C-alpha cells in the first residue's frame, strides 16, 4: 500500500491533530489515514455529482415515465 509523508506541519496544528486522535482513541497515523480517506471520498462524491449535473444540463430533463423505464428494463432482460 502506498505511503504519504507530510512535512512542515505547524506545531499548533500537529498538537491539535495529535490531541484529537487521542480523544478518538486512535494513533495519529490511524487518525490521519482516516481523515485523508474521508476527504478523498467526499471530493470524489462532489466531483461525481458535478459530472452528473453537467450531463443533465447538456441533455435536459428526462421525459421517461416509470412505466417506460420498467418496459425498457424488461425488454433488455428479455422478459
Order of helices and strands: HHH
Structural class: mainly alpha
* Average pLDDT over all residues: 94
Helix content: over 70%
Biggest sheet features: none
Q: What is Rg?
A: 23 Å
Domain tally: 1
How much of the residues is beta strand, in percent?
Answer: under 5%
What form results from the Cα inertia axes?
Answer: elongated
The first-to-last residue Cα distance is 45 Å
Q: Ranges with pLDDT <50 over ≥5 residues? A: none
Protein name: Antitoxin FitA-like ribbon-helix-helix domain-containing protein
InterPro entries: FitA-like_RHH, Ribbon_hlx_hlx
Domain Antitoxin FitA-like ribbon-helix-helix: 2-34
GO biological process, one term: regulation of DNA-templated transcription
Question: How would you characterize the overall build of this protein?
Answer:
With 79 residues, the protein is mainly alpha-helical. The protein has one domain. The protein contains 3 helices and no strands. The protein has helices spanning 11-23, 28-59, 66-77. Helix 1 crosses helix 2 (28-59). The radius of gyration is 23 Å and the shape is elongated. The chain starts with 10 loop residues before the first helix and ends with a helix. 0% of the residues are buried. The mean pLDDT is 94. This is Antitoxin FitA-like ribbon-helix-helix domain-containing protein. Pfam families: FitA-like_RHH. It comes from Herbihabitans rhizosphaerae. One of its GO terms (biological process) is regulation of DNA-templated transcription. Residues 2-34 form the Antitoxin FitA-like ribbon-helix-helix domain.
Amino acid at each position: 500500500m502506498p505511503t504519504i509523508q507530510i512535512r512542515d506541519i505547524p506545531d499548533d496544528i500537529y498538537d491539535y491533530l495529535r490531541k484529537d486522535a487521542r480523544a478518538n482513541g486512535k494513533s495519529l497515523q490511524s487518525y490521519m489515514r482516516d481523515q485523508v480517506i474521508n476527504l478523498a471520498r467526499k471530493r470524489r462524491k462532489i466531483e461525481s455529482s458535478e459530472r452528473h449535473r453537467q450531463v443533465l444540463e447538456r441533455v435536459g430533463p428526462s421525459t421517461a415515465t416509470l412505466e417506460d423505464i420498467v418496459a425498457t428494463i424488461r425488454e433488455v432482460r428479455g422478459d
